[in-house]
């Protein structure tokens, strides 16, 4: 029996599961999910979704990844690629023993800073991808934002790359994967629209001039971690204008 893979974006809350995504999950013989330990809330969420749809979830121990703080750009990229290879090998061993239609449930949308497509591509199997509500879309909705100004671009980047992108001249950026709030170290005057654990019952939102809301951001990150055990934040950072932009709320 030939195996097929379905990569399904599940949004940031079970109620954001689209009808298309629901149907795709129900078409799977089972779902594979990385098991990052006993306190992994996203694994628990995937189990809940699969249980509600009558689909078995197979948890696979997530291979370790080199997260050394001193890695340079090449070292970081190499560590990520090695991790992807190890994940692909672990998933391949499961799929070889259990052919059929296999699902991978991706928090948010698979297109934004998620490794699932790259990992599955290594398996050499037929696969399709279904979009989900991304943290970026949810951030914009919560703050009632258009992410770009009229006729202007928006750059999506990571906290790791933020300083370099600002130095390159970008002044309207969506930032993800920023575990240390790198925006706090930027020079100049910036506006920020920030959200953490978007879609969860304890999501946090902060907006204002960056220099004015740093304490609020720190407190909100602490509350999010205390409530959910993790912090996944996303924010729009825009160089401040002379007048307060529409929709900016503290």
UniProtKB/TrEMBL annotation:
MF annotations from Gene Ontology: precorrin-6A synthase (deacetylating) activity
Pathway involvement of the protein, from the record: Cofactor biosynthesis; adenosylcobalamin biosynthesis
Domain Tetrapyrrole methylase: 5-213
SUPFAM superfamilies cross-referenced by the UniProt entry: Tetrapyrrole methylase (SSF53790)
Record flagged with keyword Cell inner membrane: no
GO biological process per UniProt: cobalamin biosynthetic process; methylation
Keywords, alphabetical: Cobalamin biosynthesis, Methyltransferase, S-adenosyl-L-methionine, Transferase
Transmembrane feature ranges: none
Database matches in PANTHER family: COBALT-PRECORRIN-2 C(20)-METHYLTRANSFERASE, PRECORRIN-6A SYNTHASE [DEACETYLATING]
Protein name per its UniProtKB record: Precorrin-6A synthase (Deacetylating)
Organism: Nocardioides exalbidus
Organism lineage: Bacteria, Bacillati, Actinomycetota, Actinomycetes, Propionibacteriales
């Amino acid at each position: 029996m030939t195996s097929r893979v379905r990569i399904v974006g599940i949004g940031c809350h079970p109620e954001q599961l689209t009808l298309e995504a629901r149907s795709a999950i129900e078409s799977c013989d089972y779902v594979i999910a990385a098991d990052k330990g006993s306190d992994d809330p996203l694994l628990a969420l995937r189990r809940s979704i699969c249980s509600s749809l009558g689909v078995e979830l197979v948890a696979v121990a997530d291979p370790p990844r080199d997260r050394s703080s001193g890695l340079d750009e090449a070292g970081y990229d190499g560590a990520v690629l090695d991790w992807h290879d190890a994940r692909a090998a672990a998933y391949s061993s499961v799929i070889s023993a259990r052919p059929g239609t296999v699902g991978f449930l991706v928090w948010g949308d698979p297109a934004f800073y998620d490794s699932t497509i790259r990992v599955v591509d290594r398996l050499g199997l037929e696969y399709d991808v279904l979009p989900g509500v991304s943290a970026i879309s949810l951030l914009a909705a919560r703050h009632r934002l258009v992410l770009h100004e009229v006729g202007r671009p928006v750059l999506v980047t990571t906290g790791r790359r933020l300083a370099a992108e600002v130095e390159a001249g970008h002044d309207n950026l969506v930032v993800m994967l920023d575990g240390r709030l790198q925006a706090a170290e930027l020079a100049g005057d910036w506006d920020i629209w920030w959200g953490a654990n978007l879609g969860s019952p304890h999501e946090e939102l902060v907006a204002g001039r960056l220099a004015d809301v740093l304490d609020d951001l720190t407190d909100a990150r602490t509350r999010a971690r205390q409530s959910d055990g993790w912090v996944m934040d996303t924010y729009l950072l825009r160089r401040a204008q002379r007048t307060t932009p529409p929709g900016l709320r503290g």
